[in-house]
């Protein structure tokens, strides 16, 4: 199947539903737990370290997912991930001590690591190559759209209705278990059909065939560029998602900024995914990185957001960062699958998600530390400078379309 709606692919509805509730629950707590810590007396560095721990646990877990899928299978791996991500949310109200918040965040990071790798790996196995860009875009839309409401609305909801309501809603991932079991059944049936049709003569011939579990140096090297680019993009987005409510004096403006960022990111993920299928994936990276740098500079120089001109710059900056944050997620995931080849789709998914979550955690931790030592302006300018340097390097070397695949073996 190479034409028509990607939603008609077997398993797409299940992976979208499972991922939507998972990322909704994740979004409810991403900015709220650091707010909870600040209310208890933590500084910006401590608040940023919470999401840093969350992402560190996520990344460490992600390295184990190929092993877990081989040993435990899709159903058990996904169920463990959903429960680990959702259930700790109820426990945040027991204490606002920094060590307790970090401990619970580490457990949630374990669950998030499972869901991120398994979700994108499932997309690679469900979608044929000629529909992969659209499938990646659709998956991105499914996980980004709920976060428009949860990441932007959770801080407001905590202020208006109390943190207890937010922490209850943070357990939404538990509702994804039925979808996870349905997805596991689809993937297992798909693997069985492919195995019966193709035997074991060419185990790397399809995305659903047995996968390599030990990355070669060649595979690691070809995945470095998209992972580094993704790390920069998510550092930009992660910094704003964590700290924009604390950077601005006006809570309504912070809510509007997050809404603009996430809405543009959601549309950008969908649009870039579709664009890749029609025109290829090359030549798009450096303009998006430049947009991220420009957006961060606009926001940093407009802080604390007083006056009409400052408000306009913050909203425009949020839109530019959102364009890059969403578009580069789809673009780099397609690049990773192209470069790794079908036999290494799970390893490519692992590497991509490590880049995504390392960037999110790095953005939170670095911006928090720089803001504590200097200011939010300095922190945003540092991240913007890194994005701009990468954009210039890519523009000079004339970024190629796609990349060569690593031969199975």
Written description of the protein model:
- By secondary structure, the protein is mainly alpha-helical.
- It contains 15 helices and no strands.
- Helix 1 (12-30) packs antiparallel against helix 9.
- It is globular, with a radius of gyration of 20 Å.
- The two termini are 27 Å apart.
- The model is unreliable at 199-210 and 400-409 (pLDDT under 50).
Briefly summarize what is shown.
Helix content is 78%, strand content 0%. It has 409 residues and is an all-alpha fold.
Contiguous low-pLDDT stretches (5 residues minimum) are 199-210, 400-409
The percent range for helix content is over 70%
Element string (H = helix, E = strand): HHHHHHHHHHHHHHH
Oligomer state of the chains in this structure: single chain
Total beta strand runs:
0
Number of helical stretches of at least 4 residues = 15
Determine the mean pLDDT: 82
Class by SSE composition:
mainly alpha
How far apart lie the N and C ends?
27 Å
Q: The biggest beta sheet, please?
A: none
Q: Output the radius of gyration.
A: 20 Å
Pick out its properties.
single chain; 409 residues; mainly alpha; 15 helices; globular
Spell out the blueprint of helices and strands.
Layout: H1 12-30, H2 32-39, H3 44-62, H4 65-71, H5 73-86, H6 98-126, H7 132-161, H8 163-169, H9 177-198, H10 217-247, H11 251-279, H12 285-302, H13 308-340, H14 345-373, H15 376-397
């Amino acid at each position: 199947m190479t034409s028509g709606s990607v939603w008609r692919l077997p398993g797409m509805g299940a992976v979208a539903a499972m991922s939507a509730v998972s990322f909704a629950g994740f979004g409810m707590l991403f900015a709220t737990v650091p707010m909870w810590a600040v209310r208890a007396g933590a500084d910006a560095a401590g608040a940023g370290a919470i999401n840093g721990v969350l992402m560190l646990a996520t990344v460490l877990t992600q390295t184990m997912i190929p092993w877990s899928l081989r040993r435990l299978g899709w159903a058990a791996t996904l169920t463990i991930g959903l429960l680990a991500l959702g259930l700790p949310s109820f426990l945040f109200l027991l204490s606002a001590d920094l060590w307790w918040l970090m401990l619970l965040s580490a457990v949630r990071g374990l669950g998030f690591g499972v869901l991120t790798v398994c979700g994108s790996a499932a997309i690679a196995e469900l979608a044929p190559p000629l529909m992969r860009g659209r499938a990646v875009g659709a998956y991105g839309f499914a996980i980004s759209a709920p976060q428009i409401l949860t990441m932007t609305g959770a801080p407001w909801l905590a202020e208006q209705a109390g943190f207890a309501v937010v922490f209850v809603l943070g357990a939404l991932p538990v509702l994804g278990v039925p979808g996870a079991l349905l997805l596991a059944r689809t993937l297992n049936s798909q693997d069985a059909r492919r195995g019966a049709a193709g035997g074991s003569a060419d185990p790397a011939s399809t995305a659903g065939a047995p996968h390599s579990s030990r990355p070669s140096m060649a595979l690691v090297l070809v995945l470095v560029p998209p992972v580094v680019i993704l790390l920069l993009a998510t550092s930009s987005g992660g910094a704003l998602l964590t700290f924009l409510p604390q950077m601005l004096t006006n809570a309504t403006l912070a809510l509007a900024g997050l809404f603009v960022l996430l809405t543009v990111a959601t549309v950008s993920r969908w649009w870039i995914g579709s664009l890749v299928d029609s025109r290829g994936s090359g030549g798009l990276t450096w303009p998006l990185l430049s947009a991220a740098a420009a957006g961060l500079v606009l926001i940093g120089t407009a802080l604390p957001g007083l006056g009409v001109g400052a408000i306009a710059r913050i909203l425009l900056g949020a839109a530019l960062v959102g364009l890059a944050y969403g578009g580069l997620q789809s673009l780099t995931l397609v690049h990773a699958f192209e470069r790794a080849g079908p036999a290494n789709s799970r390893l490519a998914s692992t590497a991509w998600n490590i880049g995504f979550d390392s960037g999110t955690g790095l953005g939170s931790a670095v911006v928090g530390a720089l803001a504590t030592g200097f200011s939010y302006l300095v922190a945003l300018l540092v991240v913007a400078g890194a994005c701009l340097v990468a954009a210039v390097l890519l523009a000079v070397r004339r970024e190629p379309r796609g990349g060569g695949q690593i031969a199975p073996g």
